[in-house]
Amino acid sequence: MQSIKEYLLGVIGAAILCCIVTQFAGKEGILGITLKLLTGVFMLIVLVAPVTDIRIRPMNIFSDITADADQITSTAANSSRESVAGIIKEQTQAYILDKANTCGVTLSVEVTVSEGEIPEPVSVTLSGKVSPYNKKILTQTIENDLGIPSEAQIWN
Amino acid sequence: MRKLLLLALMLFLLAAPVNAQEYTAPEAPKEALELMPVERTTFGQDLWTVVKSAIAKFQPELTAAVGICIALVTVTMAVSLVNGLPGKPGKTVELVGVIAVAALLLQQTGSMVRAGTETVSALSEYGKLLLPVMTAALAAQGGITSSSALYVTTTVFNTVLTTGISAILIPLLYCFLALSVASCATQQSVITKLSGFIKWLCTWLLKMSLYIFTGFLGITGVISGTADATALKATKLTMSGMIPVVGGILSEASEAVLVGAGVMKTAAGTYGLLAVIAVWISPFLQIGIRYLLLKLTAAICDVFGVKPVSDLIGAFSEAMGILLGITSAICIILLISLTCFLKGVG
Fold first, then answer.
1. Whole-prediction pTM value?
2. 3-state class (DSSP) for residue A111
3. Taking 90 as the threshold, does the pLDDT of residue A1 lie above it?
4. Which chain A residue shows the shortest CA-CA distance from B258?
5. Which residues constitute the domain of residue B201?
6. Contacts (Cβ under 8 Å, ≥6 apart) of B98
7. Of A19, A84, A118, which is closest to B257 when you measure between CB atoms?
8. How many domains does chain B have?
9. What is the pLDDT of residues A47-71, one digit of tens each?
10. What 3-state class would DSSP assign to A113?
11. Pick from B139, B155, B194: CB nearest A47
12. B124, B330 in Cβ contact below 8 A?
């Protein structure tokens, strides 16, 4: 800001000086015309000289901003996926518990969901006392309704 | 004792954080916060509250601006009167008039330029805090490509324009003022042409940066929006091909997360829009009213027939116009970008 102020004052000072010189010399005659030309050149030098000192540095911001964008979107997408996975886990557990209650069985259920882009229930751990008949019914229900194969169903 | 323990356990469960990402807009800067509505209602009413608060805060500034304009008219009248005296003092009196007008207006213009640059800086900084929130919310809503493209475009333009304003446009504005003073003092046509060129350059640079921004945003918006819409359709298609129970659960879960992210994005976006306007409106009113008053003063001073003086006042009003454009450019970029974020996927 200081340099701008100096520049501004310099231009105003030069303009005043030129004005006084041309006022005294008058507009006509060789002296008048020459002084007008000289003051014009002088004003141009005063105006343009500081501009030549400006140095433009290349900016390498694009790659940094793109990297930031990738990080923000991937974090948000992961967080969103985790939220969906959490809901799927809860809903699937609730579904199995509901089916177990229908059979008159009390169980504790722990569902694991896949790590892929679309989270799906892949395995389940079931704990509690259950008769072989009810176990068979529940195993088939989980396999048919939820797509969890009997091998991925762990009964404790 | 057992009941007490159970109560403590229940309270702990109630206080446990919900496992979901929250997207909230950063708080508006302190000066803007004073203008923001205490309780949020509709966007239109909230905007009106911001405008009303800014106008109420602006009253003393108006009195000061009118005072300077009266002083300018007085100086012009005095120059005109002295010019009419016998002896023809002519150019010297006009020169004194030009110096007096420059002295009266330079300080005011300096403070306006400071206010303008501070606003640009405040808007840019707020944008840098708000844009990641909007990007994350839009990405969570399924617009991964769109949000990334919007973030990159807006941040690049925000950074380039802010740097350009402080490194090129503000020095050019001062240069324009210096040339205008020199042109009115010396009445040399070459300096007048130079000052005209600098004014044209400033407005051209601002216009071009906004044209390029909106054009680029429009093209990338269409391309990335289509990509996101296709990706969402593909996901829905995959879900529909699943076992009905799992597909149903997955569909409901995705919908719940998308709707949640959308609600948070809308809330953050509307707050962000209000905050950006609240940061910008006070300096806009300050500079805008000075621009109009100086235009009016230049027209009044023209009546007295002291052309260099009225031309200089006109030049200062044009400088205010350029400053108005500089201050509004970043605001416009942020408003357009936020609107695109709010529009969402598709």
1. 0.79
2. strand
3. no
4. A80
5. 35-343
6. B181, B184, B185, B308, B309, B312
7. A84
8. 1
9. 777 766 666 555 567 788 889 999 9
10. strand
11. B194
12. yes
